[in-house]
Amino acid sequence: MISSDQLLTQLNWRYATKSFDTEKKLDASQIETLLESLRLSPSSFGLQGRGFVVVENSELRQQLLPYAWNQKQVVEASHLFVLCRRTDVNTDFVNNYFENMAHTRGMDISTFDGYKNMILGFLEGKSEEELKIWLTKQTYIAQGVLLTSCALLGIDACPMEWFDPKKFDEILQLSDHNLASCVIVPVWYRSSEDGYAHAPKVRFAKDNLIIIK
Questions:
Q1: Which of 56, 174, 182, 195 is the most exposed place for a label (fewest CB within 10 A)?
Q2: Are 132 and 175 spatial neighbours (Cβ–Cβ below 8 Å)?
Q3: How far, in Å, CA of 20 to CA of 18, rounded?
Q4: Mean pLDDT by 10 residues, the chain (213 residues)
């Protein structure tokens, strides 16, 4: 287990990396660890109404670049993570979730009837737009876990909302997987020439952020 000092050191070390070292590349085990951190990230009801796409192909990322407003991290990074909301969170999706839960825990699925009906009632009470917003929020929970995991592993990352989701969805053919992009995160190692790496971290004082009662 890491110490409090180690945690805070790494969180102070991380920043939204603007320039990556193109001579380096993350290995398969590092990517697998980051993917597992996403898989383990929390979600409302544990429903996991999101999916994750990793774009390594350089030609594909060149196609995406204009729709990320030519932010060079998209093509410089070792891998580009695209965090997506699911577009098929419905009764069948919920039923499948509880079938998996019953199998994983070795329990009769009827044990979860009350919980399942509560979730179905919650979903039925939301409009299409409200459901979209709620599912989008789930991707940001996962993003927080990804950024923290990167920091603890000494991997740089840059969370990015400034891109055209519809074009990303089209190029990556996300509708075939019942996904819609919400936020992107290039990961790699910072360039020694990135001046932002040495800039003091700008945060409000705790007294301006935190209330203890």
A1: 195
A2: no
A3: 7
A4: 96 96 93 98 98 97 98 96 98 98 97 98 98 98 98 98 98 98 97 92 94 96
